[in-house]
UniProtKB/TrEMBL annotation:
Start and end residues of each SIS domain: 43-182, 215-357
GO-annotated biological processes: amino sugar biosynthetic process; carbohydrate metabolic process; fructose 6-phosphate metabolic process; protein N-linked glycosylation; UDP-N-acetylglucosamine metabolic process
GO CC terms, sorted: cytosol
Protein name: Glutamine--fructose-6-phosphate aminotransferase [isomerizing]
Catalytic class of the enzyme: transferase
Major localisation: cytoplasm
Active site: 362
Record carries keyword Lyase: no
The protein's Enzyme Commission number: 2.6.1.16
Domain of life the protein comes from: Bacteria
Catalysed reactions, semicolon-separated: D-fructose 6-phosphate + L-glutamine = D-glucosamine 6-phosphate + L-glutamate
Quaternary structure (record): Homodimer.
Molecular function (Gene Ontology), one example: carbohydrate derivative binding
Residues represented out of the complete protein: 240 to 606 of 606
Lineage start: Bacteria, Pseudomonadati, Pseudomonadota, Alphaproteobacteria, Rhodospirillales
Length: 367
């Protein structure tokens, strides 16, 4: 079927706007609606006995894996190894016989991810694939497919595929935690309802579009942009930088907030916007002190936080976007939306080809 842009100028914006719907669809596929209990399909591995999960992917999909690593380690107490496929496949990594491989891919056709899968299979690993296109090469060669229901993604810069990957991986982490006996029913119910509320919370963030566009117009004037975050906000900082450079061609770097003092702080002056991903969570105060170091050096901070965080900051930032307060577990999913919108509007302001950025392809089948 021919897919149109609806009322949107670009597929990317249409796909950003679809996120409440496709996240709801993906959740429904993994959550029993009556009991709100997460249910995975039958898996080829015993989650309780698993010694380690190795997650391999490319590009934005690898950043979904990066968030999943934090979730699986902190919530499910499962050791996770993470690498980009183009490195993993050449490392000759020994693989634990009681471990398993997880690959994450929108297209299911990425050559490096496929090669990493074949390497792990040759060592006897079972393969779980998180895919948006189950009838793909990776889908056919995996032991089980966990299907994100993002629907066809046309924009080269991944948006709804990423957030549906995150939602699916969050469900996976909860299921692993239950199988390993490390989560109680009350906490599981809390996490499940935080996920269930996400489509509504995301719709609220999409309503800030006009405000985010105003900020993006300022960001679009910069030559370099820095994104900072800690914990699960760190991969979102990486994703924000990746999105911005892919479609606006502005040089952007994502950094762990605590690593800033070991290098990027040297770049900071009044010409470098610093986008800080900072939901109110147990790491907030640490990130906040990194932010004060930035402001002390004249850096122009764009602060993404909730009402509590913004109150703490006072009027010191160049700009702030107030997001709804959510359980920190789901914050990386929610905070993806403003970084997508920032990149989108900066690219539109620069007049680039948003859906087909130069030198990039939707699916990379060369190594
Ligand atoms: C390309 C796309 C990215 C994507 C990456 C991995 O570089 O432009 O948006 O994240 O490939 O693709 P996959 O289909 O494996 O998720």
């Amino acid at each position: 079927a021919l897919i149109g842009k609806g009322n949107h100028r670009h597929f990317m914006m249409k796909e950003i706007a679809e996120q409440p719907t496709v996240i709801g669809d993906t959740l429904q596929a993994f959550m029993n609606p009556l009991e709100r209990r997460i249910q995975l399909p039958d898996l080829p591995v015993d989650l309780a006995g698993l010694s380690r999960l190795t997650i391999v992917a490319c590009g934005t999909a690898s950043l979904a894996g990066h968030v999943a690593k934090y979730w699986l380690e902190s919530v499910a107490r499962l050791p996770v190894e993470l690498d980009v496929a183009s490195e993993f496949r050449y490392r000759q990594a020994p693989m634990d016989p009681d471990g398993a491989l997880m690959v994450i891919s929108q297209s299911g056709e990425t050559a490096d991810t496929l090669a990493a899968l074949r390497y792990a299979k040759s060592l006897g690993q079972k393969v779980l694939a998180v895919l948006n296109v189950p009838e793909s090469t990776i889908g056919r060669e995996s032991d089980v497919v966990l299907h994100t229901l993002a629907g066809p993604e046309i924009g080269v810069a991944s948006t709804k595929a990423f957030t549906t990957q995150l939602v699916l991986l969050a469900c996976f982490a909860i299921a692993v935690a239950r199988a390993r006996g490390v989560i109680d029913a009350a906490r599981e119910a809390e996490l499940s309802s935080a996920l269930t509320e996400l489509p509504a919370r995301i719709a609220e963030v999409l309503n800030h579009d006009v405000h985010i566009r105003e900020i993006a117009l300022k960001v679009a004037e910069a030559r370099d942009v820095l994104f900072l975050g800690r914990g699960t906000s760190y991969p979102i900082a990486l994703e924000g930088a990746l999105k911005l450079k892919e479609i606006s061609y502005i040089h952007a770097e994502g950094y762990a907030a605590g690593e800033m003092k070991h290098g990027p702080i040297a770049l900071i002056d009044e010409n470098v916007p610093v986008i800080v991903v900072a939901p109110s969570d147990e790491l907030f105060d640490k990130t906040f002190s990194n932010l004060q170091e930035v402001m002390a050096r004249g850096g122009r901070v764009v602060f993404l936080s909730d009402a509590d965080g913004i109150r703490k900051l006072g009027g010191q930032a160049m700009a702030a976007v107030e997001l709804p307060r959510v359980d920190p577990f789901v914050a990386p999913i929610l905070y993806t939306i403003p970084v997508q919108l920032l990149a989108y509007h900066a690219a539109v302001a620069k007049g680039t080809d948003v859906d087909q950025p130069r030198n990039l392809a939707k699916s990379v089948t060369v190594e």
